[in-house]
Amino acid sequence: MNKWDNNKAWFFILPVLVIVSFSAIIPLMTVVNYSVQDIFGPGQRLFVGVEWFKEVLLDGRLHEALWRQLAFSGLVLLIEMPLGIGIALMMPKKGWAASASLVILALPLLIPWNVIGTIWIIFTRPDIGLFGALVNSAGIAFDHTANAVDAWITLMLMEVWHWTPLVVLLAYAGLRAIPEAYYQAAKIDGASSWAIFRFIQLPKMRGVLTIALLLRFMDSFLIYAEPFVLTGGGPGNATTFLSIYLVKIAVGQFDLGPAAAFSLIYFLIILLFCWLFYQALQAVGTGEKS
Amino acid sequence: MSLKLKDITKLVGHDVHLKDINLEFESSSRYVVLGRTLAGKTSLLRIMAGLDRPSSGSIFAEGQDVTGVSVRKRSIAMVYQQFINYPSQTIYENIASPLKIHGLHKDEINKRVMEAASMLHIEHLLDRLPVELSGGQQQRTAIARALVKNVNLLLLDEPLVNLDYKLREELRDELQKIFIQRDSVVVYTTTEPTEALMLGGSVIVMDEGRVLQVGPTAEVYQNPSTTRVAEVFSDPPINFMDGEITDSQVRMKSGLNFSITTAMNNLEPGHYTFGIRSNRLSMTCGSDDHACIVGEVGLSEINGSETFIHFKHGNELLVVQDDGVHMHRVGNTVSVYVHPRNFYVFNSAGNLLISPEND
Question: B119, B111 in Cβ contact below 8 A?
């Protein structure tokens, strides 16, 4: 029987097809469409081929934003992953203390991005902010609106405070899933705490840590609200990450063509990195040396 | 090494996990701890290993009190129900890990790993990772890791329970041979009477945190000291019937009557509990001495080459083991035969008075 004859099956995938079309395929194809045209106004457009891609790829400011973005995401992962694992290892294993610490940890995750930005702007203000005023009164000049390093420190604090709990929760779940017998066996072998971490806990957490790493990478690579609320990409261009720069082109200058080309490149970069991370983590500990 | 447990009690909150345990273990011997789930088998092993401290009582190794000694300082190895191996290390590294920690020379490690691996037939898997192996091979690795250390005390906590039937039989067979060669005290827990019988050695029957009976496995099987031991050490379950002994007759509550055997002659007339193993009931009448039990079939299960027929006789639910595969319809009437000398007789407190005569 020809498999195309069974038309009923199509009804089952129709809802998904409709939803995905509206949520992903149509917007994406619109972007693809824009990226190869020069748009002057409604109905006035010109096919320009790969012109915008060339322009965007050769844009020096985009290169700067990309390096800035990579440095930011790299730092985020370097701080949040070990910190998250460390906190998860120290957390109580059971009882009310475990529930309490889980709730407290989850609190930052519930706060909207722009609210986080506002909280930290006030917190780090040199004149009235608890943190800012304290640091300044200790003799260290700290002003995230004027100093690039200070802006980065503030952003990093924000990001770590906001998202490390996610890594902790995932790592904690991974740790709790390890049967007690593993620890007993290690104890009987005479293994040290480091050996237990290295040879039992870390390999057993690999799955959840892969997810944590991918989520944290994607999310930090797409960061927009925090720098936007904090300094709008400044001081200077110090916190102009890819998304901020993209919005400047698309909304600020209304250059839809280059912005669309930029978006596609941005998307491909994220896809590439996620694939690389995933491949690397899959190979770790399975003995395959790729 | 000899090991002695004296008055061991383990309480967790208000729960009694172990109560007044007194046991002695001789070196180069095998012990099977038999008991149902929650009987305290694992608690006992954990205390013997030094993973838990008893609430009261002491443990002596070679006459020396080792109650508080840390597990790291004892010479023990343990195998679990779950297949416990280091996930990111190869089979070779896994087996070698306890030796590496003790800082042995590389050649010595290599020699002993190879020895243990060949004993468990996993030489060809040494460069694989645990996830790449089947359950049986993973458990072989865990057992090899336990054997490689040459410990004084080898503990196995239901090691075969997560394996399929065929693998379990195969590995049990090999393990029995390996255990016999060992100088260590081997303690093996199980819930299965058949497994205990196959492993031989001595058996420790446990129930609700207490030791009910200790002795050579076959002897305990033949002479269970109480009805509870008989229950734990029977699969399918042993049949019990309440009855009365008069001057010359046994009258069961269910209506079954037969004349008493010579062994029962010495018993005072009165009420007793009679036990009969399902394999001592028969579907065929052997001789005139046999009593006939008539019942209604409730369930018939085919187990390999045997059929277990559950039937109702009066108010008693009984099981008979019939060799071969036979179909019995639910509700049919069956006649089951028994020779009176095959009955166990227990007094009203459940203590054994008479065992069946050996064939």
Answer: no
